[in-house]
Amino acid sequence: MKKVVLSQTIHPDGMAALAEAPVHLVALQSDRPTSRETLAANMADCDILISMPGDCIDRALIEAAPKLKLIAQHAVGYDNIDTDAAAERGIVVTNTPGAVTEATAEMTFALMLAVARRIGEGETLLRNGLFFGWHPMQLLGIDLFGATLGIVGYGRIGRAVAQRAEAFGMKVVYHGRDNGMPLDALLGRSDIVSLHCPLNRETHHLMNRTRLAQMKQGALLINTARGPIIDESALVEALEQNHLGGVGLDVFEREPKVHPGLLNFRNVVATPHQGTSTWGTRKRMASRVMDNVSAFLAGKKPPNQVV
């Protein structure tokens, strides 16, 4: 019987499916990412690992698991996995595409609206007893209607964001890997820039000091993709210089740590990587994971194999 290590508890439907599967399940239940030491100890003789974005599955960890044959990532992104090391060992890697699209697009707009309409500042004012009645110049924000939204990364999530933007009466421009306008042109034209590209060698610190400076004065920056796409030190500098009108972040460069400078600005809305945190999305993610695991156990190619 194959040993399956689950690095964190998933949706109850997924847990039930794993319990019924013909495997020896080791569920490392935790409300935070499993420590490297615990993961390594349990992976030493495992056949299948169900991993989370917070697990650093690097070469050393892979080489220390000689029986490992499948890494089923419980996410669409898999930048936390050393896919080169996995490929060299013939280890299959899968993800959960499509399951997170709508929730991430919704979270993008939640952040966009929160920053543009200064929701966080307004709630803080009210909770601190400083709301004295309507005032014509209180907490003025910016309109989404008529604004130009620049989408960086035009895959499933980028296109879902574009659909919502059109419903808001926004003008949409985009930069994709093989299509759309050049990134420099998009940055100079957009009132709001939203990041939806995967994290890889090319996109690490894509938004660096130079590119942040190319954004329009007072523009907003939203990131629900991966934290290291933005150089957070450069972002803090841009905020200190009042170059940006506001920032909405659901992901961070050194998660779970957040650059302390970011929390000093009232026009920064930061959430704890909750873009896919809905019951429906987690259920779909668990279902995709089980589809991949079940196919692998049956000797078939998993439907969402990326390596």
Automatic annotation (TrEMBL):
Stored InterPro entries: D-isomer_2-hydroxyacid_DH, D-isomer_2_OHA_DH_cat_dom, D-isomer_DH_CS, D-isomer_DH_NAD-bd, NAD(P)-bd_dom_sf
Keyword NAD recorded: yes
Superkingdom assignment: Bacteria
Alphabetized Gene3D superfamilies for the sequence: NAD(P)-binding Rossmann-like Domain (3.40.50.720)
A Pfam cross-reference name: 2-Hacid_dh_C
Domain annotation D-isomer specific 2-hydroxyacid dehydrogenase catalytic: ranges: 4-306
Keywords: NAD, Oxidoreductase
One GO term describing the cellular component: cytosol
Molecular functions (GO terms): glyoxylate reductase (NADPH) activity; hydroxypyruvate reductase [NAD(P)H] activity; NAD binding
Record domain D-isomer specific 2-hydroxyacid dehydrogenase NAD-binding: where: 109-275
Family, per entry: Belongs to the D-isomer specific 2-hydroxyacid dehydrogenase family.
Annotated protein name in UniProt: D-glycerate dehydrogenase
